[in-house]
Write a structure and sequence with these properties.
- The complex is a heterodimer of chains A (357) and B (675).
- Chain A has 2 helices and 30 strands.
- By secondary structure, chain A is mainly beta.
- The longest helix of chain A has 20 residues.
- The radius of gyration of chain B is 25 Å and the shape is globular.
- Chain B is built from 3 helices and 35 strands.
- Classes of the chains: A mainly beta (357), B mainly beta (675).
- At the A-B interface, helix 1, strand 9 and strand 29 of A face strand 26, strand 27, strand 28 and strand 31 of B.
Chain lengths: 357, 675
């Protein structure tokens, strides 16, 4: 009798288990549209959460694909996609914690090759990529810049630079690398490495404000370096380097009334994401502030996180990381600083890549 | 590269000798005090409890005793309570994986963990890792929503949203059998070897002691499936090795039930690897954690004939933690951080019956905590907490009413930077039960508790380059429930049903807000959460017939925990992370003479790992089963208990915390002999 009871009990449990395993299938299989014309957003995701994604917004269909990479490849990008840039027909996605560079087809996001950046069992932790004459230069937190051939996709050399290098910029035949030293709290690095692109060796280190991270260069011989300071006594600030003499031209803690967090330069203008959440436009030719605030329609961005400029339309794209833990947003502004549209992105949208026909 | 504050568990030993000297001094004074008391021994009350009687309490209470640990295939304290309704164990997987308790969606910081009535306090991160506590010296574990309904207890027992109480085995010896030795070993999957020893000794009529040693070694490796990186083979979880030693010694002085004293010294030492989150394409993990915890605690309890009761508790503790990350890419070529938390704690409680129906009590607790860490720009904070609580219990006819008012003072000092402002908070609690019918064991209960948790020292000072202003996190708890128990005379021996509906309103929720700049990790009080839930529990067993007995218990939880912080946010009205809406725990078993066979099943519905309830952040539900068999026999006049436990019987691939996969099917064999 009791055995019977137990039996029915166990079968009841078994039924429950089966019911429980009938969970809804949340995998959304989409046929990714070809990225003929639109904008990619690389979302870092959360640290140690393996949820970096590549959003794509198609201008023509006005539709968003939340993760083009997994839709195209069936696998995921990994942990903390930090930078993405297009060179030729390929897009290079630098995945920091997974310690990889994913090289994908720009139009389809289909993976061409995944390059693992490890030094034995130690992850190099790549951060950013820039290009020059068929070579990709990848900065990594282990204090190196990897030189990769963009045809063979083979790494040819690791150039030793300063501590925890972040952004880089090519200017006047030289590669400038921001050595942040950001992983040594209280003791950041304060140099920019100059690499001769012919010999692929570091020729000098320029002293800048502590903890440099963001960089850009204009066509008037200026290299802009934004530093974070040490978060205590040393204030963040901007350093401008002369790309002929490699001497520091000016240094200032603020630009207008705030600190600059990131920079991009296009033509005669630099666009800065400022600590007061504004987008500041700076005339690099006259070295004066052109517009203290680019956004003119009162659109509020909670946490400006990355910026892109479309020189063909004059549009400015800004991402919002919100609370850094939930989905972000991409805002598109027309050349007059009026919001055109916004789309939902993944968590921590840290890089914007424009794809034009 | 954000700093992993979650892995830095707090814990700690320079003053061991000092602690011991102090404890000895205290022991002497207590002893003198105790012996000088000439009050007559109170008549010992013996009462015959029915199996099911324990459930009728003012606040929802769930208990498990040591004879049932094997029924739940439990290895640690965390496993033993995971079946409880309203309880959510956050298990990072594996023997060395962090396991914390969240009761009714409030998070680990809102549950006080008591060890023989005295709180295991971790001011650094406010959470107790339950994987650190083995079950071999545990008599009973209980979870109380609100608080235990006892008036005579330290003020800290009143000072949290819920209480997890661990009671150790006390010596139970006679003149004829003045000692008892229990030796056992557990072993099995993950390379587990766990020998343990317990020695109970009667010294004299009044003195006895108990000593426990528990050693755990496991390589911690297990296979798991990686989903999303394109691999089609199982990966092996590495760097999850554990080596730990827990020793506990207690000395008991019992003049009578109304006049007793005990002193405990507990030492825990562990070294473990942290396998970390599964990172696609990067399988290497090398972080390590070392814990060195010691505490000594003493309790003196006296009941006078006038009904005045006194409870004195003293504790000194040191929690030392070392966190190593040899591959951290800083200038030193790795992280090697040391955290040291010391606490001195004193509690006095008095209770007195004004009339036979009406009892009042007062408790005062004082605690001083000092925290040191060799990290950048550390504040070296110390915190002084003073708690006062006035409580009253009134029983009249079918009614029992209880209430208390807790007053908390928090004061902090720092050696560097800016200290958090002092605060003083009043927290009321009201509880009532009504037994509406004379001839039925049906009770209706309700409680309201307004309580808070203080910000932890990590939240306030861990890499706090910019001074943080964090207010306490408040919870208003409302609960209405029914308990019903019936002793039967048919096939079933008894049946017990409990159900509670609750509403928790969390305000000033402390949220960690990471920043683009990793060093500026900030915290804010922006969160508001509305939690509505239902807990249902059923427990029954058959009468023993021809040596057979069947057992069944089931617990069900429904939880809706909604973020109501900011209507403009994309997470507004979404379920908070890692909160399943439905959880069901079933346990069934059959005892036949000396053999018991048990089956345990836990079913959890899906969850989201971020505040956005969208498919991208979906964590599937899981359904896992455990089975165990226990056999008791006598060999050469010595009682032996042998057991086999199988966790994750159907080898399901699941995780409780995303990126921290749980092990597949695993086995554990145990044998224990009592001399």
């Amino acid at each position: 009798m009791k055995q019977f009871k137990l039996k029915s009990l166990l079968s009841a449990i078994a039924i429950l288990s089966v019911l429980a395993s009938c969970q809804k299938d949340n995998k959304v299989i989409v046929n990714p549209p070809a990225a003929t014309s639109g904008v990619y957003v690389l979302n870092q995701g959360n640290f140690n959460a393996n949820n970096s994604t590549l959003s794509f917004y198609d201008y023509a269909t006005k539709s968003t694909t939340s993760d083009m990479f997994s839709a195209a490849n069936g696998t995921k990008l990994g942990d903390t996609g930090n930078d993405a840039k297009i060179y030729g027909s390929k897009m290079y996605i630098v995945v920091n914690v997974s310690s990889t560079v994913e090289v994908v087809n720009v139009k389809t996001a289909k993976s061409i090759k995944q390059i693992k950046l490890f030094n034995g069992a130690v992850a190099r932790q790549p951060r950013y990529v820039v290009f020059n004459k068929n070579k990709a230069y990848i900065s990594s937190y282990d204090g190196t810049v990897a030189v990769m051939d963009t045809t063979t996709l083979a790494i040819e050399k690791y150039i030793t630079v300063g501590r925890n290098p972040e952004q880089m910029v090519v200017s006047n035949g030289k590669l400038y690398v921001a050595n942040s030293g950001g992983l040594s709290f209280g003791n950041p690095d304060k140099t920019v490495s100059v690499i001769d692109l012919n010999t692929l060796t570091e020729t000098k280190k320029i002293e800048v404000i502590a903890n440099p991270s963001s960089m850009a260069a204009d066509s008037y011989g200026n290299v802009y370096v934004l530093s974070n300071g040490d978060y205590a006594t040393i204030l963040p600030g901007i350093t401008i380097i002369d790309n002929t003499t490699d001497a520091v031209k000016t240094q200032s803690p603020t630009l207008g009334s705030a600190h600059a967090n990131s920079i991009l330069v296009d033509g005669d203008f630099a666009y800065f994401l400022m600590s007061d959440k504004k987008v500041l436009v700076y005339n690099v030719k006259t070295q004066t502030v052109a517009k203290a605030s680019f956004i003119t329609d009162g659109t509020v961005i909670t946490t400006p996180y990355s910026i892109a400029y479309d020189s063909t339309t004059g549009e400015v794209f800004v991402t919002d990381a919100k609370d850094y833990a939930s989905n972000g947003e991409l805002f598109a502004f027309d050349k007059d600083g009026k919001k055109e549209y916004s789309i939902t992105t993944g968590i921590n949208p840290g890089a914007i890549v424009l794809v034009n026909k | 590269m954000r700093h992993k504050s979650s892995i830095i568990l707090s814990n700690s030993l320079p003053a061991i000798s000092c602690i011991l000297v102090l404890m000895c001094l205290q022991l002497i004074s207590y002893k003198t005090f105790a012996q000088s008391d000439t009050t007559k021994k109170l008549k010992e009350v013996t009462f015959k409890a029915t199996t099911a009687s324990k459930v009728q309490t003012l606040t929802p209470t769930q208990q498990i005793t040591n004879k049932d640990f094997a029924r739940y295939s439990a290895f640690s304290v965390a496993d033993a309570v995971r079946n409880f309704s309203g309880v959510n164990i956050k298990d990072y997987g594996g023997i060395g994986g962090l396991k914390t308790i969240s009761v009714r969606s409030l998070g680990a910081n809102h549950t006080a963990v008591l060890f023989d009535g005295i709180q295991l306090n971790d001011a650094q991160n406010g959470q107790i890792d339950l994987s650190k506590f083995n079950l071999n010296n545990v008599q009973e574990i209980a979870v109380y929503n609100g608080q235990p309904a006892n008036l005579l207890q330290p003020a800290r027992s009143f000072a949290s949203a819920s209480v997890l109480s661990i009671k150790t085995i006390q010596p139970a010896l006679t003149l004829q059998k003045p000692y008892q030795i229990q030796a056992g070993v557990k072993g099995g999957s993950f390379g587990l070897v766990n020998p343990y020893l317990q020695w109970q000794q009667r010294i004299s009529k009044r003195w006895s002691f108990i000593a426990n040693a528990n050693y755990v070694y496991a390589n911690g490796q297990y296979k798991y499936k990686v989903d999303g990186d394109g691999s089609d083979t199982l990966a092996i979880r590495r760097n999850g090795d554990v080596r730990s030693l827990q020793t506990d010694a207690a000395l008991y002085w019992t003049k009578s039930d109304s006049n007793k004293f005990n002193i405990h010294v507990n030492y825990y030492n562990s070294k473990r690897g942290l396998p970390g989150a599964v990172i696609f394409y990067n399988p290497y993990a090398s972080q390590r954690l070392e814990n060195n915890d010691i505490f000594a605690q003493a309790t003196y309890e006296h009941t006078w004939q006038s009904s005045l009761r006194l409870l004195v508790n003293t504790k000194l503790s040191q929690l030392k933690t070392r966190y190593l990350d040899p591959e951290f890419l800083n200038q030193q070529g790795g992280l090697d951080q040391h955290y040291n938390q010391k606490e001195a704690y004193q509690s006095v409680a008095l209770a007195y019956h004004l009339t036979p129906d009406w009892e009042i009590s007062y408790a005062a607790d004082a605690s001083y905590i000092k925290m040191d860490a060799d990290i950048y720009n550390y504040a070296y904070p110390s915190r002084f907490t003073l708690l006062n609580v006035l409580a009253t219990n009134f029983t009249k006819g079918r009614w029992q009413l209880q209430g208390n008012l807790l007053q908390t003072n928090l004061n902090e000092m720092v050696e560097k930077g800016v200290a958090s402002k002092s605060s003083s908070v009043l927290s009321p609690t009201l509880m009532a039960t009504l037994k509406p019918f004379d001839n039925s064991n049906l009770q209706i209960r309700a409680f309201y508790k307004n309580i808070f948790r203080a910000p932890t020292l990590d939240e306030l000072y861990f890499y706090a380059i910019v001074p943080r202003t964090i207010k306490p996190e408040f919870v208003k708890q409302y609960d209405v429930g029914i308990t019903w128990t019936k002793n039967l005379n048919n096939l079933l021996e008894y049946i017990t049903l409990t159900t509670d509906a609750y509403y928790n309103a969390v305000s000033n929720k402390i949220l960690a807000v990471p920043n683009k700049n990793p060093a500026i990790f900030s915290f804010s009080n922006i969160g508001k959460v509305d939690i509505k839930g239902v807990d249902v529990g059923l427990k029954t067993q058959t009468k023993q017939q021809n040596g057979w007995r069947g057992l069944l218990s089931a617990n069900y939880t429904y939880q809706q925990a909604i973020d109501v912080s900011d209507p403009a946010s994309s997470t507004y009205q979404n379920q908070i992370p890692y909160t399943p809406k439905n959880t069901l725990a079933l346990n069934a078993g059959v005892n036949y003479k000396q053999l018991g066979v048990y089956y345990n099943h836990i079913l959890s519905s899906s969850r989201y790992y971020t505040g956005n309830n969208v498919p991208d952040y979906y964590v599937p539900g899981y359904s896992v089963s455990d089975a165990s068999a226990v056999y008791n026999f006598i060999t050469g006049k010595l009682p032996v208990t042998a057991s086999v436990e199988v966790n994750n019987l159907f080898n399901k691939n699941y995780s409780i915390i995303r990126s921290f996969p749980m092990p597949g099917r695993s086995y554990r064999l145990s044998i224990q002999i009592t001399i």
